[in-house]
Design goal:
single chain, about 475 residues, alpha+beta, Porin, 2 domains, 16-stranded antiparallel beta barrel, two-stranded antiparallel ribbon, 6 helices
């Protein structure tokens, strides 16, 4: 507004000066020329004054309200208030919601030169002498925030690639695996206002049995252990956790089964466990899982004229096996120094085909026991070295199909090229007391396999810490 007023003052001064010149000049032609210029300037001044009045009137309409004269304070225009409110809600939602993405690929070479270029008993690095897309994932999460008065939240993990086919939807466990295969996790959360807060989740989630998890960037090694491949990958149901205090949290689940979004029998598996933090540097998780994993029905082609969804026609298995599965799982992580991390896992798993099955090493009564030890040292922010040693006794062929003692040693070298871009170089040796690994001769198995792997992991997003 000040600029318009100054402009009018300048025009006025110019007009006065020109009029003075017109009076002082004797030349008639020159006087007429000056008079035309004065008239033109006066016309422009009138236009500017009209524009100035319009701007003043518009400003009063936007910033003043009839209620102002009654003592109330001025308020912004309704249109401005609506835009500001909508923008604020959008910003609040984006601030509390994280979108994260990761791309995980590798090249592995198996020195057995196996038939079909397959690394047996591997969960993620399953192919040899190939450039492989291990996993591409999208994670969307809006976690509960009691400080903001929000007790609910939700999470969705979409997963694609080689690891998806390994982990998700085994036809032996799922009646319709194709429906849920790319939904790695999908669950809602509510914190019940009970004591320190009872956290309840409903949906499908990644299993916490076993120390290792899905996202490679959060693991010590690139490849996964035998126990990761053996223990459940996911569950569908309800889980609850309740903090007794800052050092102890109790956990309880009721789920359809192991690796089952749709149940294969009417039994509901349960988990009882706890997470303890006796010191800030120590995190200890222990769980007991009770399940019944044998199906009581078989999928058959539709025989009824009643329309059903594909894969929902069954016939009963009579008699249906009723034996239980027991999983005892415990692991501890110790951050000994800011640079050195140590971890230890122990497992004991029993599966019976029938409840009255006698102990023995057979498919009717089999069990797996053993454990794994981990160490990782962070030399610099960009360089780290990790190692893993593992022993798995498979009695009755519960995991591998034959009774054997499996072992593996893994060394992993990390180099972080940038924030969110990690290169991993890994050497791994698997060996057994029984021929179990493919060789370059069809039908001939060996007692060991050695692999060298280069993994490339990219990730970006706002979620901090472990995914």
């Amino acid at each position: 507004m000040k600029h318009q007023v100054l402009l009018l003052m300048c025009f006025g001064a110019c007009i006065s000066g020109l009029r003075g010149q017109a009076v002082a000049q004797d030349s008639t032609a020159h006087t007429q020329d000056l008079q035309q210029r004065v008239e033109h300037l006066e016309s422009e001044v009138k236009e500017l004054r009209a524009i100035l009045r319009q701007m003043q009137s518009r400003n009063e309409t936007l910033t003043q309200d009839p209620a102002t004269d009654a003592g109330s304070s001025p308020r912004a225009a309704p249109s401005q208030t609506l835009v500001s409110s909508a923008d604020g809600k959008t910003l609040d939602f984006l601030h509390d919601t994280t979108l994260n993405l990761t791309v995980d690929g590798y090249y592995a070479y198996n020195f057995n030169n196996p038939v079909g270029r397959v690394n047996l008993l591997r969960a993620y690095d399953v192919l040899s002498n190939e450039f492989s897309l291990n996993q591409a994932s999208v994670i969307l999460e809006r976690a509960p925030d009691l400080g903001a008065g929000r007790r609910w939240g939700a999470r969705l993990d979409l997963q694609y690639g080689q690891a998806t086919d390994t982990l998700q939807g085994n036809p032996a466990n799922e009646p319709r695996p194709q429906i849920y295969r790319n939904i790695f996790q999908a669950y809602g959360t509510y914190i019940v206002p009970l004591g320190k807060g009872l956290t309840v989740d409903f949906g499908k989630w990644s299993s916490s049995l076993g120390i290792e998890g899905n996202y490679t960037k959060d693991q010590m090694n690139y490849s996964r252990s035998f126990y990761f491949d053996f223990l459940p990958f996911y569950h569908m149901g309800i889980r609850a956790s309740y903090p007794i205090n800052d050092q102890l949290t109790l956990n309880y689940w009721v789920v359809n089964g192991t690796n089952q979004v749709e149940a294969t029998n009417g039994f509901k598996d349960q988990l009882f466990g706890f997470t303890a933090k006796p010191r800030k540097s120590i995190n200890w998780t222990t769980s007991y899982y009770l399940g019944q994993e044998h199906p009581d029905r078989a999928v058959v082609p539709p025989t009824s004229p009643i329309p059903v969804q594909p894969g929902l026609s069954f016939e009963a298995i009579r008699p249906a096996p009723d034996g239980y599965t027991h999983i005892f799982d415990s692991y501890v992580i110790w951050q000994t120094t800011p640079k050195l991390t140590l971890a230890l896992e122990g497992d004991y798993v029993i599966q019976r085909l029938w409840q009255n099955a006698a102990p023995g090493h057979s498919s009717a009564h089999s069990h797996v026991d053993g454990g794994a030890a981990y160490a990782r040292y962070q030399f610099t922010p960009k360089v780290a070295l990790a190692g893993r040693a593992e022993y798995l006794s498979d009695r009755g062929g519960f995991f591998s199909g034959i009774t054997q003692a499996l072992k593996e040693n893994t060394v992993t070298f990390d180099y972080a090229l940038a924030d969110g871009f990690l290169v991993r170089y890994e050497w791994r040796r698997d060996f057994s007391n029984q021929p179990s690994f493919l060789t370059d001769v069809q039908g001939i198995l060996g007692k060991q396999q050695d692999t060298a792997t280069v993994g490339l992991i990219w990730w970006w997003g706002r979620k901090e810490g472990f995914w």
